[in-house]
Amino acid sequence: MSALPYVWAGVLVFAVYAYVVMDGFDLGIGILFPRYAPGPSRDLAMNAIAPVWDGNETWLVLGGGGLMAAFPLAYAIILPAVYAPVVAMLLALTCRGVAFEFRWRNPRHRRYWDLAFFAGSTLAAFAQGAVLGAILQGIAVEGRHYAGGTWDWLSPFSALCGASLVAGYAWLGACWLVMKTEGALQAQARRQALALGAATLVCILAVSLATPFLGQRYYARWFAWPNVVFAAQVPLLLVIASALFFFLLRRGHERAPFLIALGVFALCFTGLGISVYPDLVPGAISIEAAAAPPASQGFVLAGAAVLIPIILGYTGWAYWIFRGKVGREGYH
Amino acid sequence: MPADPTALDLARLQFAFTISFHFILPAFSIGLASYLAVLEGLWLVTRRAVYLAIFDYWLRIFALVFAMGVVSGIVMSYQFGTNWAVFSDKTGAVVGPLMAYEVMTAFFLEAGFLGVMLFGRTRVGPRLHFAATLAVALGTFVSAFWILSANSWMQTPAGYGVNEAGQFVPLDWRAIVFNASFPYRLVHTVLAAYLTTALAVGATAAWHLRRAARDPAARVMFAMALAMVAVTAPLQILAGDLHGLNTLVHQPAKVMAMEGHFQSHPDGAPLYLFGWPDEAAQRVRWPLAIPNASSLILKHDAYAPLAGLDTIPREEWPNVPLVFWSFRVMVGLGTLMLALGATALVQALRKRLFVSRALQRFAIGMGPAGFVAVIAGWVTTEAGRQPYTVYGLLRTADSASPIDAATVTGSVVAFAIVYLVVFTAGLGYALKLMARPVNPRGATWPIPGPIRSAGITPASGVGHAPAPGEAR
User: Fold this and answer.
1) Domain assignment of residue B302, yes or no
2) Closest in B74, B85, B93 to A90, CB measured
3) Is residue A329 part of a domain?
4) Per-residue pLDDT reduced to its tens digit, B320-352
5) Closest residue on chain A to B169 (Cα)
6) Is B121 part of a structural domain of the chain?
7) Based on CB atoms within 10 Å of each CB, which residue in A63, B38, B48, B253 is the most buried?
8) B296 within domain boundaries
């Protein structure tokens, strides 16, 4: 047994996590956009993400490209299975991505592009959640093909996952604005972060309670002895993180709430990992079965080992350049 | 599991539609990024304000084009899976790594430094800002390198084996990346991007020269753009010729379709300038032909024999009229580009470069020519590869996802509506930006806007660089 497929699964989990937390907060600002007053508030909210959204979204391309390169079989089965939500996500990302530029081009068109920014961000978040839900609830596979229908992905569970991700991204967006703005907009973002933090935790609870009963092997992974000893750490840490979040947010901390929110997402990822490992398509295709030959995985991994740290380095530098509050003079 | 024929045609339609919209944008942003790097470099060396003013002018257009290119590019990276699942399963181990390298070496580089390039001039020094511009320009080129390598592998596959699951597996990465058609396609495509940009910049400059003949920025742009056309157009014709000779060796059916050669010509083949290829009758109707010229071009011998489509089984033919005509559109426009460059050279020698009205009209008319030629060339090479996705090895009909026609119809309609709205708006905004003259003071001129009143607003980079948050 080669370790390569598992290393690659780790790389992809990292890429998807990087995507979720980075594009998560800028999609979240899109979701919250109509709540901000037209004019300076919206402009500030937009400017808080304008220099970085494009790099954030690149992690999604790495997720797709990496999955195709390292696990072509999983890529070829999952994407037809979630055809509708993926197409919806792509079109939604198109509308909200161009809105960053287009809304400044003609003041008379601005409200339409603001609407596109909101609707696109919300639909993209919902679709991503629904894709996750569809994968968790299981995909019909026959040989090397997806064997289900167009609407198999749609279920109360996948809709719940979609709604949960909308809430979670909006929460990240509000926390980002708490960190990046001040005054009235920050106060508004702080109120939103409180409410959305609570909403997100309710969603996490709902998804967690529903997952073990999806008919896959999830129940045993979480509740069978001795798994339960390790698995129980995840909800335990989640409770601690949540308590810390509300405490620090109320105490007026600006950075800690965002960082804790990232931690909560990391715990959710760990939970997903516990549920799914060692499968890529739960119950159907394992990490090893889907793996591209070592000559492919090794070729890309050699590059990734050098390039991803470099990417993280200059991405961090770009964030550093735009550090601090949006719209405050002379802070640097 | 072959997909049903209607679903297959719809998936092909969707791919052609989305990639055509997408391809226009990198063709422009590759050239524009290099142009911006040259302008900023010239400004750093000479400190002439006009270069910075032109830089700021095109930077805003670049931001617009780049955003559209990014979002339409994400579509491509997922569409392989949604609509071409069998292709993805079979070729993912070969093509996937090339695309993964594109993401890691190019997309992140562009995206990471784009923010600094667009909004960071007040936050980093001029040299560091120039480094960011160079990084973005390099990223656009590296992106072309990888994606054209992947595409070329589909045209001239090499360095692979096939495993028991029917998947292509890599045996020799050097042979895969540097496959037979790749160097030609890379040079031809990157030159096309430069030409496209030069023509668009030249047309914009000509437009402003017609209104203000002494506008110094318009003069600089016009001279730079037409010099680029004069140099690049003949190089591009040479590169295209070499690319064609390479195709003759590796994909003869494509060249037969380009030439309209249904019959073999043992004593030298004619060059059809125009005509209508009739696939059913297997001949070119209403031909306007130069005897033996095709053999002369392709074999450098007027009497050399050239095989025709009669040597190829009918089910292996590409769509002959499509390939024949898209090729002629590309070559015709290329010839006009050569003429524009030559005219500009003559007028420059006569010291009439900036005053010749005819040249200005010619340049304005040629503004969109690069985009049209790029699409026509792409259609020639992609339609000419049919009926295969991986030439000679994997048929298009065997590449599609098991998705029913109704579902693909839904996505085709959705893509058509969203793309038409979004890209029509984007084109309108780009033209509006190009219709404004270059401000000689660059972006430091006062711009009304809600954020501007706050003075220097760091994240928006107001001050020198255009901020995202302003009515420009």
Assistant:
1) no
2) B74
3) no
4) 999 999 999 999 999 999 999 999 999 999 999
5) A293
6) yes
7) B253
8) no
Binding-face residues of A in 224-283 toward B, CB within 8 A? none
Overall domain count for chain B: 1
Note whether B364 and B335 are within 8 A (CB). no
With an 8 Å Cβ cutoff, are B460 and A326 in contact? yes
| Residues of chain B contacting A292 with CB distance shorter than 8 Å | 92-93, 96, 169
Torsion of CA B305, B308, B311, B316, to 10 degrees: 150
Provide the domain count of chain A: 1
Structure token pair of residue B458: 């760091």
- Cβ atoms of A83 and B403 within 8 Å: the answer is yes
The one-letter code for the residue type at B94 is: V
Q: How many CB atoms lie within 10 A of CB B435?
A: 10
Q: Helix axis angle, A4-32 relative to A294-321, nearest 10°?
A: 40
In angstroms, the CA B408 to CA B388 distance is 21
What the block records as the tokens of B265 is: 């010509």
Q: Tokens representing B461?
A: 């980079």
- Residue ranges making up the domain that contains B76: 5-264+307-440
Between β-strands B168-170 and A145-146, what pairing exists: parallel, antiparallel or unpaired?
unpaired
Residues of chain B with C-beta less than 8 angstroms from the C-beta of A313: none
Q: Is A309 exposed, middle or buried (0-12, 13-18, 19+ CB in 10 A)?
A: exposed
pLDDT tens profile B180-210: 999 999 999 999 999 999 999 999 999 999 9
ipTM: 0.90
For residue B114, being part of any structural domain is answered with yes
